[in-house]
Amino acid sequence: MPEHSPAPTPHRAIYGFAFYILFTVLFFVYVAWAFLPVELGLHSYLPDKYFAVFVPVLVMVCAFFAVIIYPAINLSLTPDIDSIASVVDLNLVLPKGAKFTSWSQLQSKRSEATPKRNPSPAENLCNLCKTEHVAKTRSPISPLRFLDLQEVNATYYN
Prior knowledge:
Layout: H1 10-35, H2 50-77, H3 90-93, H4 103-111, H5 149-157
C-alpha cells in the first residue's frame, strides 16, 4: 500500500486541473451574468442582479467578522497571562468594593488577625439548606510563572 503524502500524483493532477477549469468557467459565467444587460431575455431564469453584488459582499463581511472581529473581541476580554484574574476570581477573594493591586494584598488579608464579631446564628445559615457551614480557607497561589505542579496538586487535592 502506498504511503500517504501530499506530493503530486497523476490522480491529483487530473482532479486539480478539472477543478481549475470548472471554477474558471463558473467565474466567467458569473461575471457575464453580472454585467450582461437584462434585455437578452434570460432574466426570468436567473436571479436578480442585486445578488451579483450582495452575495460576495456578504461573504466578505462574514469572513471579516469571523477572522478579525470576533477573535479581537475574545482577545480583548481575556486577562493577561500574568494577571491574577487568570488564576483567581477576584470577586470571590476580595471584599466588595476593594480593588486588586498586588499579591501581597491577598496575603495580607489572610495574615491579618482581625477581631471577628460574633454574628447571630441566623447570619451563618446557608440559604439553601438552612444549616451552618464552615468555610475552608487556603493560602494564596504563587505567581503563575513560578507555579510548581507538585505545589498545585498539594494545594488543591490535600
